[in-house]
Amino acid sequence: MDQTHNEADTEFAQMMIVHHEGAIEMADLAIENADTEQVRTLAENISAAQGPEIEKMTSWLRAWAEDMVSEHGGMDHGGMQMDGMSQEEAMTELRSLSGAEFDGRFLELMIEHHLGAVEMAQSELENGENPQARQLAEQIIQDQQSEISVMEQMLQQS
């Protein structure tokens, strides 16, 4: 683990952990409630990918002797807004839906969520200096843009 890091690296890890936790929360709900196997499989893949990334970033913060939660507030899932809603509002809406309506709204909200992660990762590439954090940021951009394309195709087919 490279100890080299700056404030941007710390903030990236802190905020992305909270952001990923929000995606996992949404994905776990979709695993339980999705109408189609395609959406359920996508949700399982999102959850499976982001759990290990959380563990990796948590280990970095420990190694760097940094706080796990940002001073800028982590409880709101990194300030993430999806269609103008907080994580809690989005989860409340999703819990009220079922069937194809659930699937469509889950995909719309997860696209917004992924766009937020891409934006955070791009900021890390612009401002961060830790090589492992920058590498993860590149991976997040690649993975999430790929998943966004899949979700957009799923929405068009529904």
What this model shows, in words?
This protein is mainly alpha-helical and 158 residues long. Helix content is 75%, strand content 0%. The protein has five helices and no strands. The protein is elongated, with a radius of gyration of 16 Å.
Q: Tell me the major beta sheet.
A: none
Distance between the termini: 44 Å
Form type: elongated
Q: Which regions are unreliable across 5 or more consecutive residues at pLDDT < 50? A: 74-78
Overall mean pLDDT? 93
Helices and strands: which structural class? Answer: mainly alpha
Oligomer: single chain
Number of strands: 0
Q: Helices and strands, in N-to-C order?
A: HHHHH
Helix fraction bin: over 70%
Radius of gyration: 16 Å
Q: Number of helical segments?
A: 5
Assess the beta-strand content as a share of residues: under 5%
Q: Short description, anyone?
A:
This protein is mainly alpha-helical and 158 residues long. It has five helices and no strands.
Secondary-structure map with pairings?
Blueprint: H1 7-33, H2 37-63, H3 87-95, H4 99-127, H5 131-157
Helix pairs in contact: 1-2, 1-3, 1-4, 2-5, 4-5
How would you describe this structure in keywords?
75% helix; 158 residues; 5 helices; mainly alpha; single chain; elongated
